[in-house]
Amino acid sequence: MFAISATFEVNPVGTTVEISREAMWQGLVSKAEYAVPFVPAMDDCKIIERFDDGFIREIKLRGTIMRERIVFTPDVEVYFERIDPANGGWITNVMSESDKGLLLTFTFALVFPGVAAGSAEEKKRGDEVKQSYIVAIQATIDETRRRVQNGEIYSQRGAA
Question: What residues does 94 pair with on adjacent strands?
Fold first, then answer.
């Protein structure tokens, strides 16, 4: 399994449109429901089935169709488990606070079918997709900020 994590400040110094924790959570939920505007490598995304704490969605990512089970831990984490193909790995989107303010951390743990764990081929394949996953973090923040700026998501404390 190839794993990477990356953390971004949601409101770095110089930010003119601030995203509150509540607004960032709304952005993450919106991304889970329909990720195309948030993830540049995604071509399609649709919800197949809903349940109490999440849903199953079908996505088309870099030309490959997959299914993911999404589970929410409200105001903290969105957990994506690749279920088709089976044992395809998992992704987390986690919000946390720090001395620099609100942080967003994505962790990607991916399995490449037919590739041996820990092999040079796994590292090569992981490195090939790594940048697009990191781009997805910044794109998620940017799209949420755009929605806050346009009044599609409200960023005031307590407005979520």
Answer: 77, 105
DSSP 8-state assignment for residue 111: -
Q: Which residues of the chain have pLDDT under 50?
A: 157-160
Q: Residue 146: its pLDDT value, please?
A: 96
What is the rounded CA–CA span in Å between residue 45 and residue 157? Answer: 30
Query: Do the strands 2-9 and 101-110 form a parallel or antiparallel pair, or are they unpaired?
Result: antiparallel
Q: Looking at residue 156, what is its pLDDT?
A: 62
| E strand or H helix at 7 | strand 2-9
Q: What's the token pair of residue 126?
A: 């992981």
CA 133: distance to chain centroid? 9
Burial 12-35 (b: 16+ CB within 10 A, else e): eeeeeeebbbbbbbbbbbbbbeeb
What beta strand segments (E) does 27-159 contain?
42-51, 54-61, 64-73, 77-84, 89-98, 101-110
Please give the model's pTM, rounded to 2 decimal places: 0.89
Integer CA distances (angstroms), 138 to 10, 32, 33, 64, 71, in order: 9, 15, 18, 22, 22
3 within 8 A of 125, measured Cβ to Cβ:
no
To which residue do tokens 């601030």 refer? 18
